[in-house]
Amino acid sequence: MVKIDNPAFNYDKYGKKYSGHRQTDERIAAYIYRELADAKTILNVGAGSGSYEPPGQYVIAVEPSIAMREQRIKNNKVPAVNAKAGDLPFDNNSFDASMAMITVHHWPDMDKGLKELRRVTRQQVIVMTFDPGQLDNFWNAEYFPEVIAVEKARYPTIEFIKNSLGGNCHVIPIPIPLDCKDGFQEAFYGRPEAFLEKEVRLSQSAWGFIPDEKQSAIVERLKVDLENGNWDKKYGHFRTQETFTCALRLIVSIP
Question: What domains can be seen in the chain, in order of their start residue?
C-alpha cells in the first residue's frame, strides 16, 4: 500500500506546459454543461488552466498555482483568485453552482474542501473525478501498477465525496472518446504510444510521484510490448473502440 503524505502535485515546477495536453474535450464537457445550464453564477475550484468552464456563463475561478493562473491568461480565461479549496474567500451561498474538475485528489484536506464547496453554493455542486475502485479495469494497471498504486492512494472514494457534500447525490459514468483531447491517462486507452512521451506523462500528475529513473523502467515494459506486438495481441481492439467507460465519474450534489 502506497502512502502519500501530500497528494498535491507541484504544478509550478512541472505543469508549465500542462494546458498543451490537458484541454476541454467537448464530448465530456457536454455532461458538465448540461448540469450547469441554469446557473447564473459558477465557482470553479482548483480551476487549473480553465478546462470545462462553460462558455458564456459567469465563472469565478480559484487556483493556487501561479503556473496555472498564467496559462489561464494565455488561454483567454478569466483571471483566477489565488486561494485554496479548504479556505474559500466567499460568503455562504455566494454562487448558484460550483465545480471541481479532476482536482479533489490534490487537496490536502479533501473533506474540508468539499464542505467549503457546499457552503458557498446555493444549488448544485459538481465534481469530476476518477473512481479508485475502477482503476484496475484499464490496461495500464498491467504495465504501470506503480502509477495505479499512487492513484489509489490519492483519489477519494465516490462515497467519501458524496458524504462530504451531503444532500442528494447522483453519479454519472463518463465515456471517454478514442480521440479525447484531455490528456489524462484513460484518454489514451487506444493510443498507448503516447505514454512513451515524457511531456504527456508530465501532464498526468501521478507520474510526478515516481522518480525519473523508475519511470524509465516502467515505460520500458510498454515499449517492449508495443515493439514485439504483445500489446496489440491483448489490447489492440482498443485502437478502434469509439469510447471507453472506466473510472471517470461526474458526481452531482443537490442540497
Answer: 11-254 (3.40.50.150)
For 36-61, give the secondary structure using H, E and C: HCCCCEEEEECCCCCCCCCCCCEEEE
The DSSP result for 84-113, as a single string, is: -GGG--S-TT-BSEEEEES-GGG-SSHHHH
pLDDT tens-digit series, residues 216-236: 999 999 999 999 999 999 999
Q: What is the pLDDT of residues 54-91, one digit of tens each?
A: 999 999 999 999 988 998 998 889 999 999 999 999 99
pTM, rounded to two decimals: 0.90
Cell for 214? 523508475
* Cα–Cα distance, 194 to 221 (Å, whole number): 14
From start to end of the chain, where are the E strands?
41-45, 58-62, 80-81, 97-101, 125-130, 168-173, 176-177, 243-244, 248-254
Burial of 231: CB neighbours in 10 Å, binned 0-12, 13-18, 19+:
buried
